[in-house]
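can u do me a favor
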């Protein structure tokens, strides 16, 4: 698959993941959705590891650090988003997910000595968080406590992503490991955690029909498994800055899928809030620029779905 096609596939996979979660919740609990997502994602990445003949890291210390990443990048945010979508439209969840680069910037500013706020980054953060306030009000404040708590859960999930990315940058990225191997270990540890919790997740009994089964296969195999491979290939071919443009497309895909396939209503504050968030990301991180060769710089913040 050409890189351009992988870029489109990645935007669709991450943007539509919120649609798949919404459909799966018709017959599964939030925890059961995460269980299936991580187990299927681990199986997909296992197949990728076998095809690419990638090696599994053997350092026990690295596995311990990747366990922290797995909890922050997979288990906790997946649970929060799945729970939140019981109360929110999938399109709203996808827009709130787009705050990940902004929250990553906020965490890195506090945790990393070489990351400092300047005028451009401060402007971007303020614009992005203004977009979040537009999304939350007035509907978020008048839609009941469950609605507001669900929005805060989505922001809690993106905050976990922010902490995880800073942790990755500080402790994992300097080792120069293949992204496929790192992704496989992360997702597999998350799957093992959910498998260990199976006795507590068995009830109520899941109901699985064709739409739910197809949604879970897509959520696990595509949005959690193959998406990692596509993202790695795009970063290597186009550079991290150009690859970060997928951030601008995922909420568009998520909102469009929710409106067209689930009949979700598009309120005035959703496109306005999304525009402010995307403008904030562009201001804080800069717009993508052409690169002459694959970059050796550290990876920019990603927005998983």
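np, heres the sequence
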């Amino acid at each position: 698959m050409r890189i351009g096609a992988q870029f489109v596939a990645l935007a669709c996979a991450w943007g539509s993941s919120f649609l798949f979660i919404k459909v799966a919740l018709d017959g599964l609990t939030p925890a059961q959705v995460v269980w299936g997502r991580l187990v299927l994602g681990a199986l997909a990445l296992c197949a990728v590891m076998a095809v690419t003949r990638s090696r599994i890291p053997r350092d026990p210390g690295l596995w311990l650090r990747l366990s922290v990443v797995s909890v922050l990048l997979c288990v906790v945010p997946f649970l929060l988003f799945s729970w939140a979508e019981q109360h929110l439209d999938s399109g709203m969840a996808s827009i709130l997910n787009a705050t990940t680069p902004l929250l990553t910037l906020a965490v890195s500013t506090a945790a990393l000595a070489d990351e400092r706020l300047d005028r451009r980054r401060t402007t971007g953060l303020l614009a992005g968080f203004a977009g979040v306030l537009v999304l939350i009000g007035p509907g978020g404040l008048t839609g009941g406590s469950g609605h507001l708590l669900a929005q805060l859960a989505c922001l809690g999930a993106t905050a976990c992503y922010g902490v995880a990315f800073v942790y990755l940058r500080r402790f994992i990225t300097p080792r120069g490991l293949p992204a496929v191997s790192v992704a496989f270990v992360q997702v597999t540890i998350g799957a093992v955690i959910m498998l260990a919790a199976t006795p507590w997740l068995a009830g109520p009994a899941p109901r699985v029909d064709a739409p739910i089964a197809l949604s879970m296969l897509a959520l696990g195999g595509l949005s959690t498994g193959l998406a990692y491979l596509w993202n790695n290939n795009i970063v290597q071919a186009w550079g991290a800055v150009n690859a970060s443009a997928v951030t601008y497309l995922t909420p568009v895909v998520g909102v469009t899928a929710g409106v067209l396939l689930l009949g979700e209503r598009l309120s005035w504050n959703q496109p306005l809030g999304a525009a402010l968030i995307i403008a904030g990301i562009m201001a804080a991180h800069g717009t993508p620029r052409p690169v002459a060769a694959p970059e050796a710089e550290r990876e920019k913040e990603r927005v998983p779905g």
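DSSP finds 14 helices and no strands in the chain. hope that helps!!
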